[in-house]
Amino acid sequence: MNTIMLEKMNTIKTLNVISEGGLNVFKNNYKLDDDHENPDAILLRSFNMHSMEFGNKLKAIARAGAGVNNIPVDKCTDEGIVVFNTPGANANAVKELVLTTLMASSRNLFDGVAWTKTLTGESDQVSKLVEAGKKQFVGKEIRGKTLGVIGLGAIGALVANDALDLGMEVIGFDPFISVDTAWNLSSHVQRAMTIEELFANSDFITVHVPFTDTTGGMFNQATFSLMKPGVHILNFSRGELVNEKDMGPALESGIVGKYITDFPNENVLKMDNVIPIPHLGASTKESEENCAMMAARQVKDFLETGNIKNSVNYPNASLPYTGKRRVAAFHKNVPNMVGQITTALSSFNLNIADMVNRSREGYAYTMVDIENDVNGDIIPSLEEKINQIEGIVTTRII
Ligand SMILES: NC(=O)c1ccc[n+]([C@@H]2O[C@H](COP(=O)([O-])OP(=O)(O)OC[C@H]3O[C@@H](n4cnc5c(N)ncnc54)[C@H](O)[C@@H]3O)[C@@H](O)[C@H]2O)c1
Ligand SMILES: O=C(O)[C@H](O)COP(=O)(O)O
After folding, report:
1. Largest CB tally within 10 Å, which of 15, 23, 56, 170?
2. Among 18, 45, 212, which residue has the most ligand 2 atoms within 8 Å of its CB, making it the best to mutate?
3. Within this chain, do residues 180 and 214 fall inside the same structural domain, yes or no?
4. Beta-bridge mates of residue 42
């Protein structure tokens, strides 16, 4: 059990370069200090935090982006640290690169450009050589071809809708599709009832799911064998979704025509017909700024009011902040936690003005606003009393 004391100055540490717009959100009572051993909050992009020690003041980690597989989320949950991400903030950037590489690879553009560069030094022969050589790079149009989209979240839905506009047939597979996304998805996107159906019918497959225990290795020998020979696979999600040992032979045999990946590594770089992109999906000014600002605002709001929006481990919870004292407690999702917190408050003769309690799997979050003016001297004892309740993970009095 940790006791977190509200301090006047909050320290924010960044583990990657975060866009200025995001950093500018932190003014007055905030200090940006990348060398700080014990920050109140951390902002990052793809930095791998798995072997990092946490300081005892850490309250929040915000991923300026979508994927959180670089953060030890379960450990954070156990320690009452809220992990945020920025849903949809980089989706347009990824969509544009998916469509760019879909078309460019279908037209053999990457190989064609690389070959053309080799003609440097051929002086007045260049145009003759170009005309003679271009037949090696004859491509295929995407219009009328079928694109399979696995994962119809923020990115997948944008890709699916725009691929329709480019004249493609689109099949989508997402057993966990959210209501919001379903509303935004064109009714012309055909629904695959099984992933096998999508594999069997797609000329191009693009995957937009998080890397988890269940999605890891979803592209493997068994699933390649279901696909149309020559299929192009686009992976702008995570390298781990593809079993690379199986991808090599699939490319050699031509079952997979091309593998476009935003997550190259030494193995993949050695394979023919791989188009390696240096993790550029979210790398646009607009997306970096969007993600940074969203991440920073969520952290600031949480530190100042306790309100949670876009957390991946704790429930979203919000109460209008009145500026009087607020108890914000993370605890196990077990009976009578709220009762015990309110009993602790009444033992200090404190009356409740408003409250919210939200749960998510094994944990829950309770915020209680106090009606009385609270004498600052009693705060440590109140905090201690709440922290003594079995099942409390952390408490802040804001
Ligand atoms: N290349 C990049 O720079 C870049 C940028 C942003 C996101 N990403 C990656 O893309 C992933 C998706 O991003 P997003 O913003 O669309 O996330 P999102 O949460 O909006 O969408 C993910 C979708 O995947 C679906 N899903 C989960 N498991 C599935 C399964 N087994 N089969 C089918 N669908 C499944 C979910 O229901 C959800 O609709 C991220 O988790 C991240 O790993 C990469
Ligand atoms: O999950 C994400 O948002 C992307 O992979 C982007 O990663 P980046 O912020 O390191 O570019």
Report:
1. 170
2. 45
3. yes
4. 13, 61
Reported as a single tens digit per residue, the pLDDT across 253-309 is 999 999 999 999 999 999 999 999 999 999 999 999 999 999 999 999 999 999 999
The token duo for 208 is 């937009």
Shortest-distance Cα residue to atom 38 of ligand 1 = 153
Q: What is the pLDDT of residues 119-171, one digit of tens each?
A: 999 999 999 999 999 999 999 999 999 999 999 999 999 999 999 999 999 99
Closest-approaching ligand to the CA atom of 261: 1
Which ligand neighbours the alpha carbon of 216 most closely?
Answer: 1
Q: Which atom of ligand 2 is nearest to the CA of 16?
A: 10
Residue 62, helix vs strand vs coil = strand
**Residues 7, 55: Cα–Cα separation, whole Å:** 15
Is residue 266 domain-resident?
yes
Residue 135: inside a domain:
no
Shortest-distance Cα residue to atom 1 of ligand 2: 67
Ligand closest to Cα of 291 equals 2
Range of the domain at 21: 1-90+282-314
pTM above threshold 0.90: yes
* Strand extents, DSSP E, the chain: 2-3, 10-14, 30-32, 41-44, 60-63, 82-84, 146-150, 169-173, 190-191, 204-207, 231-235, 256-261, 274-276, 326-332, 352-360, 363-370, 392-397
Give the number of domains in the chain: 3
Residues designated as active site: 238, 266, 279
How does DSSP assign 70-126, residue by residue?
TS-HHHHHHTT-EEE--TTTTHHHHHHHHHHHHHHHHTTHHHHHHHHHTTTT-GGGH
- ipTM computed for the complex: 0.99
Helix (H, G, I), strand (E, B) or coil at 191: strand
Q: Ligand 2 within 6 A of 241 CB?
A: no
- Residue bearing the CA closest to ligand 1, atom 28: 209
Q: Does 114 map to a domain? A: no
